[in-house]
Design a protein that fits this description.
Shape: globular
Strand content: 15-25%
Helix content: 25-40%
CATH architecture: 3-Layer(aba) Sandwich
Order of helices and strands: EHEEEHEHEHHEH
Number of domains: 1
Radius of gyration: 16 Å
Largest sheet: 7 strands, parallel
CATH superfamily: NAD(P)-binding Rossmann-like Domain
Strand order of the largest sheet: 3-2-1-4-5-6-7
Number of helices: 6
Structural class: alpha/beta
CATH class: Alpha Beta
């Protein structure tokens, strides 16, 4: 039986790679996208909704599918205002989870980050930790939260601090413990695709496990 996938954040690095994998996968007959800007991909499987992402809950009738992939996220450089940052990294995934529960979508896969902790003194980690807690409160049957370390690959926008961190991790990779090693978005998207079709024993999936799943 063919399925419908929903992607939140398909214009991002990992979301874009995941989109291409879903379009090439015969398991999925339809890929519904919700985003602020177009992915600019012409494909018969794609149904694209260009919306105000802070009003996602107004699109309940279109939010129908078998699995939701939430790849949304911003950075301090791109979104310096903490309130807006929280609305994106916390509010949008929570709204997507709420709609998934409402519309009986029983598989929800969301990207978080290594170190996510609702009690953290670091705002970024605290926000991601609070997002994880709130997503889990909806008790969607198959919820998977991915916590990758620093994500490699080339982004459309310039992130100077992130670029330096990638250079450091690449240069001193041999000294970095496995769980902190940089991970490529290709592996994250492979793991997400696998999780969309298979059950896994853990809800919180760290970088090492993401890599293991991607190799299956």
């Amino acid at each position: 039986m063919t399925k419908t996938a929903i992607i939140i954040g398909a214009t991002g690095l990992t979301g874009g790679i995941l989109l291409n994998k879903l379009l090439a996968d015969s398991t999925f007959e339809k890929v519904t996208l919700f985003s602020r800007s177009s992915v600019q991909v012409d494909h018969p499987k794609i149904e694209e909704h260009l919306i105000d992402m802070f009003a996602l809950e107004n699109y309940s009738e279109d939010f129908i599918g078998d699995v939701v992939f939430c790849c949304i996220g911003t950075t301090k450089t791109k979104t310096p205002d903490k309130i807006m940052y929280s609305r994106i990294d916390h509010g949008i995934p929570m709204a997507a989870a709420r709609l998934s529960k409402k519309n009986k979508i029983d598989r929800f896969i969301v990207m978080s980050t290594m170190g996510a902790d609702s009690k953290s003194a670091v705002f970024y980690n605290k926000t991601k930790g609070e997002m994880e807690q709130d997503v889990l409160r909806f008790e969607i049957e198959n919820t998977y939260i991915l916590q990758p370390s620093l994500i490699g690959g080339r982004r459309a926008e310039i992130r100077t601090g992130e670029r330096f961190a990638k250079w450091m991790m690449g240069t001193f990779n041999f000294m970095i413990p496995k769980k902190y090693k940089m991970i490529h978005p290709e592996l994250i998207s492979k793991a997400m695709l696998w999780l969309s079709k298979n059950d896994f024993s853990e809800t919180i999936i760290v970088s090492k496990k993401i890599k293991e799943i991607a190799s299956r």
